[in-house]
Structures are given as C-alpha cells and as structure tokens.
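Page 42, continued from yesterday. The earlier attempt failed because a stray header line got pasted into the input along with the sequence. Redoing it now with the clean sequence only.
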Amino acid sequence: MFTRVLSIFSRKPKEQSDESYYTAGQLSLIKDRFKSKTSGVIAGWILALLVTVSFFAPFFSPVDPTINGADSEYRRGAPQWIHMSDENGFSLRPFVYTYSKEKAKIDFKALSGAGGLAALDALTSGDALTSSSQNKYIIDKDKRRYLQFFVKGWEYSLIDLSVGSLNLDIRWDRHLVGVDNGELHIMGTDEDGKDVFSRSIHAIWITLSIAVVALIVKLFFSLLVGGVSGYFGGRVDAILMSFTEAVRVIPPIPIYLACAVALAEIDLTPVQRYFAIAVVIGALDFAALGRRLRTHILTERNQDYILAAQLCGSSTWRIIWQHLVPSFGSYIIVDTLINFPYVILAETSLSFLGLGLTEPVNSLGVLLQKAQDPDIQQNMIWQFFPVALFVALIMAFVFVGDALRDAADPYAEKS
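This time it went through. Structure tokens are written below.
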C-alpha cells in the first residue's frame, strides 16, 4: 500500500518527443521537472496541508486560542487522546475521557499545635507544592465524551473585507470538531489553560504572513536597486552596489537589537509591531537577490530586443519592468520560495530572543520561547508540539525549494 502511494506521488510525466520538449513553455517544463522529484511533491502536499489548516485555523481549532478560551479547570493539562476502544468495549464514535483536577492533600492542621517546624518541613519536602503535582488529573474512563463534527462554538471572523465605512465582516461559529461536554484539548493546555493545539495552528499563519510581508518588501528593494543599478551602470551602479555591500556585510543581530530598542520606545499595537518587524526583516535581506538581478540586467541590457524597445520609444522604466525583469522572473520566483524558511527563521529567532512578537500574540517564535522554560521541559512536554510543527514547516519549504531550484533549469539534461 505504501509503495503504491509513493508511486502515485513520484509518477513521472509522460514522455515527450524532442520537438515538443524544446518548444514547450517555460512554466510547463518547470512543472514537469518538479513532478519528477518525489521528495518535492510529498513536501509540497505537506506544505499545502499546513498552510490550509493555518489559514482556516479558527475552523480547525476546537477551542478559542486567546485568554477568552482558557480553561481554568484544566490548566497545565496533558493531551486528551482520542480513543475508539478500551477495556469498556469498542465504540464506532471516537471519544475522549473525562478529566478532573486532583485536589492537593495538604493538612494545614498539622502546622498548628504540636506540629511545629517538623510538620512544616514535611509539607515543603513533599510533592504537594511542586509543579508536577499541579499536572495531576483523575481520568474517569467510565465517562466518555464523544467527538462531534461541525459543532457550534466561539464566534470568529470568516472573511473580513471591511475597509473604511464598508463593513463586510462575515462571522461564523462552526468548528470542525468538538465534544458533547466540556472542551477538547488534543495537545493539552499551558499554565493559563489556553489550548496548545489551537495556539499552534494560529501561530503558523501569523509566522507565514510575516514572512510574506517581509518577502514583498525584500522583493521591492531587490528589484528597485538591482534594476536601476544594472540598467544605468556607471556611477549609479557604483553608489548602489556600495550601499548594497554595506548592508550585506553588517551582522543582522546588532541591527535587530537596535530596531528592537527603537520599537520599544514607540507605543505600538501588536499589529503595528507585526508590520514593523516584517519591514525590518525584508529591508535587510535584499542584497543577495539585488546583486544577482543587477548582474543579469548588465548582461541583457545590450541585447537586440532591448535596442529595439529603445528605438520604438519605450521609456526607461518600461524597458526595465516590462522586458528586463520578466526575463529573470523564474529565478526570482524560485529564490523567493527558497528564502521563505530563512525569513521564518528570522522572525522566529527574534521572537525567541524576546525582540519580536510577544505574548499574547500567537506566533511560532513566541511559542518556542515558552518551550525553553525548565518547568515546561520537565512537567509539560506536550508544549513542544509547536516545535514539531516548526520543524515540519521549515523542512517542507526546504524540500519544495530544492525541487523548484532543480526544475527552474528546464533545458538541463533529462533524467
């Protein structure tokens, strides 16, 4: 069965004749070569799944990820595993058990009277006041809570196109899965009672959206600097390339620290801070692509089709944006996708160091920062679930980018 699935994913495109191969369009050739990369196709499906789940995170979340959805009765709670059968028999409907907090057995009366310091020492040396004791819940296997689909829950914004006076915010209250009694915590809860699974899938979309904004900023500066420098050359090229080299050799961490200090002095909302971080990351990462684009345009600007465009009276900006930049388009697309994991790592690193987004914003960097707490490492290991999602997301981008990089050379030797 597994071999058959792999054969479907790795199915090679139909053989083409030599004539059709060399006359096919660029996108068609890239698509066919990408399909021949099994690892790239599988990673592409995983990436598509993660992006889809994160984009529709409120629908896939069984619990509100904000403090409004915190379960005060299940703080520091372990994952509630889904079962189909147990010692009580088999069930056609998936279910989870009922969890109740175990009350700490602390005898305060022992501290009075003749108890004295001996009783106090016995109390503090026991496990009644330790972090691990706060994670203890009684599992009642006789009280099953059955899963339900498309359940009614907390209301969220499905589509928000409100602009100015136009109020077009479509809201919904349906969710993919829930239970008939209480809340469902598939990956447990944190110290505040917030659901780890819901926070994690919301965090993926926040991190991806920051990466998209940062890459748009990077692409704008790369095209502007590389296009102008390559087309005009001479003194303009020397000035812009000197500036580009200065940006490229400056270590990013000191710049991030300086920007973090500057942002701390400004009263910003979480949304404003979010865009500020994205712009900073994108503005500092344009040098490599800008230099490659400049080299390409320096070569292409003397070609016959550019001379023909000049003789037809085309303006300088039209020649750059309509002729020179599109000739480098496939590389720009591939380079942008390959740089996705690096931008995600930049945002995650900033938030992990406390220089980026902070609580209560849900981002992978914020959740990874929480995972370094020794209390979590010892007593709430399930809060490493965002780490697993982060690794899967980065690896999916790496494999897809690697396959696209190979496919971007469509006239390479056919395998």
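Notes: The mean pLDDT is 78.
Reminder to self: strip header lines before submitting.
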